[in-house]
């Protein structure tokens, strides 16, 4: 990290020839993941120039570790001959991952460079959707027959070096998964023993249609480094490793953080302006609809606003306090849901708890704000109106903070993506309605 | 995950005796991490009752995998005798982690149950702060002398089973780290060879005062499962594993997500109401200050608001569009910063890019909103005023979205925590000021 940010600092501050030389030096030392990060931190024109310096043997590894948008940008800029050379080296696993965001034409081009067997591999994994672990299972693993001996397994382990490899998987003649034997046991056993005698009883597998985050958690919570991925007929199609799980967890959270601003984890730091603007416009449009809803609510009370202009001055405070309180409940709910901790059995207790917190803080801040507003405008009615509105809005915010994500979950919607827009719409509308409605009653009648 | 959420569903829906029996069954099968999740999803009274069913041998492992607040709540509820029994079994590593949030009295109590040697261990790791990897390094690892033979290393690997163990670390007579030898090489080499001959050249270590997330990334980006943690004098004090890295990454992002609502990753789903209310009050208070700033801005323009009440109806739209646009830039910046991709060399290019996107979307939405507002109030001046204010505010939002996190970083502040409050203060104040200021000029003069 420190090293990466130092390299970014040096590279982005250099220009032209100097940058080219510096990047050549960095390429000597840096791992593909670092090269990917460095390229992503360059503006597009510099990025494409530096890309031409990356050795053709390294290119797939570097692109593989980039986010999708910068990767696709580079592929679009590459001359056809270089592209064909690149695709002639790509593995079905990598192509599957890239194809999630690649244009159909580009995917076709890549497939046309692939041998028949690899293409079959590709088709096999392509039947799983983008959220199923079967699509991304690693296809290289150690597997042996139940009747194989310990010495065969030892030879395997000695000859082949795979990352996160601490099992040999046992398959029957139809490639069906039977169980696994641990490396540690293999090297302690007598060479002539059969692997069957070492079969590890607690060995678990994961279904190919399990979601990515489920699969990541399965391996994270186990004490193993790898776990078999099997299809519905029990055939082992690949393995899931702890390293893949770490990457998936990171991507999952990055996606969630970006989603709070209506953005995507694939987004490029330096998207072309028109592309960036178009993508973000959708979220701004959705927000505009909800802002008009708030405006329409205010519009119902033009009468009282005309008479008491101080209401216009204070009304953002009511909406804002409700929004913050609601987002606190919502954030707690979203975290709990991500861990599978929220259910029909505890939602009422949660609601009671959050409502209690909302009312306590509501009373506190209603008093504080009511007193300040009363003094500011020298008008005790104003203090009463804003205090009451704050209290009501903060209680409603707590209820909405619990119920909105529950309802979204029932509708199979991602609460992390749309929860906060819906929540602030509720707290804006309720806040303005209570504040201006109460004011109408007290000032106009 | 699926299994956990099903168990949560069943357990939270059961009551009293039935819940107790169900939990007993679950305890038979479930791993400590699952038990921790289950307990966290129960309201406090039920949680403390079920805790008494957890076997005393399992208790430390379960508490260790809980978030800090629920763990501390359980410790506070335990009878003194049980507490002493628990602490007599705790390892220095676990206690170090717990002590970050434990009361001093409780930490002292735990230390008093510890033997002299373990206490020394504790003191050794306690010199590192909560954000330094030295504090949490794992103290169990395989280490041998440079002159040891391959057969000694093989014996070690066969006898001892550690998670994520794929190296034997080589130390000199003063425990200084020299390098490491890979398990894979150990089992391929001749038994009488020295480990020195297998010394792996690229082997790296990490400094004990490196930050947690730096250490996590170092191991994530390597191809290894473990890496040595050394102090400033080069002595190896422990190791960092890929599994620890995964947990750290998860905690890091969870903390970031909770921070966006001014909350803490240690927070309990069922905090006692008074505790929960007190914690959240701070964030609400900070928000109130910024809301009053916005109000004061509006207060400058009471004259024009009195004359043209439609301004009060429309003004939330200006602030809201600026806030959303700014948070999009901010989110992109925060992600880039987390990956070390933002530096003095590319911040100007980023600013240009974001400003371009802000102006493009500004022109689009200024037109849309200007037209709608003009028709709604049948007043072309109103359309012009809101359009201009939207355009200015969205351009300012883009600049603030890039500059606020840069400035916070310079001041060593966490942009994920305070960035969005500062940003929305800017967009609120600028939005209201431009909108009402322009309106004053056009309507009053």
UniProtKB/TrEMBL annotation, chains A, B:
Its membrane topology: Multi-pass membrane protein
| GO MF annotations, alphabetized | monoatomic cation transmembrane transporter activity
Keyword Signal found: no
* Pfam families, sorted: CBS (PF00571), MgtE (PF01769), MgtE_N (PF03448)
Keyword Ribonucleoprotein on entry: no
Q: Which UniProt keywords apply?
A: Magnesium, Membrane, Transmembrane, Transmembrane helix, Transport
Please state where this protein is localized.
Answer: Membrane
Note the InterPro entries from the entry: CBS_dom, CBS_dom_sf, Mg_transptr_MgtE_intracell_dom, SLC41_membr_dom, SLC41_membr_dom_sf
Transmembrane stretches, by residue range? 281-301, 313-334, 355-377, 383-408, 420-444
- Domain Magnesium transporter MgtE intracellular: where? 30-133
Cellular component terms, GO, for this chain's entry? membrane
Give the family from UniProt.
Belongs to the SLC41A transporter family.
UniProt-recorded name of the protein: Magnesium transporter
The organism is Shewanella pneumatophori
């Amino acid at each position: 990290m420190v090293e990466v940010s130092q390299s970014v600092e040096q590279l982005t501050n250099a220009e032209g020839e100097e940058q080219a030389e510096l990047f050549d030096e960095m390429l000597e030392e840096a791992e593909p993941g670092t090269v990917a990060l460095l390229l992503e931190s360059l503006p597009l024109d510099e990025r494409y120039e530096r890309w031409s310096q990356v050795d053709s043997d390294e290119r797939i590894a570097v692109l593989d570790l980039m986010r999708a948008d910068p990767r696709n940008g580079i592929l679009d800029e590459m001359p056809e001959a270089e592209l064909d050379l690149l695709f002639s080296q790509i593995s079905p696993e990598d192509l599957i991952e890239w194809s999630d965001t690649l244009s159909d034409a580009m995917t076709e081009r890549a497939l046309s460079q692939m041998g028949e067997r690899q293409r079959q591999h590709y088709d096999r994994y392509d039947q799983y959707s983008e959220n199923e672990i079967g699509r991304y299972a690693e296809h290289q693993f150690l597997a042996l027959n139940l009747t194989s001996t310990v010495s065969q397994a030892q030879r395997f382990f000695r000859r082949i070096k795979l990352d996160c490899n601490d099992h040999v998987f046992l398959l029957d003649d139809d490639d069906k998964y039977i169980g696994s034997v641990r490396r540690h046991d293999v090297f302690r056993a007598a060479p002539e023993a059969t692997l069957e005698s070492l079969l590890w009883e607690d060995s678990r597998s994961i279904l190919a249609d399990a979601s990515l985050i489920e699969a990541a958690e399965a391996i994270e919570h186990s004490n193993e480094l790898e776990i078999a991925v099997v299809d519905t007929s029990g055939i082992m199609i690949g393995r899931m490793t702890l390293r893949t799980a770490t990457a998936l967890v990171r991507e999952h959270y990055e996606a969630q953080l970006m989603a709070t601003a209506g953005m995507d984890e694939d987004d490029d730091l330096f998207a072309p302006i028109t592309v960036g603007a178009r993508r973000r416009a959708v979220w701004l449009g959705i927000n505009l609809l909800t802002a008009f809803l708030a405006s329409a609510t205010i519009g119902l009370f033009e009468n009282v606003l005309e008479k008491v202009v101080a209401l216009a001055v204070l009304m953002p405070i009511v909406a804002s306090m409700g929004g913050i309180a609601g987002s606190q409940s919502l954030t707690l709910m979203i975290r709990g849901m991500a861990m599978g901790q929220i259910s029909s059995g505890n939602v009422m207790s949660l609601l009671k708890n959050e409502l209690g917190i909302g009312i306590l803080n509501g009373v506190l801040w209603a008093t504080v704000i009511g007193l300040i507003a009363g003094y500011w405008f020298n008008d005790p009615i104003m203090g009463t109106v804003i205090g009451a509105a704050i209290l009501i809005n903060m209680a409603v915010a707590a209820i909405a903070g619990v119920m909105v994500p529950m309802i979204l979950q029932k509708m199979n919607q991602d609460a992390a993506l749309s929860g906060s827009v819906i929540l602030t719409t509720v707290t804006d509308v309720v806040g303005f309605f209570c504040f201006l409605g109460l004011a109408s009653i007290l000032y106009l009648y």
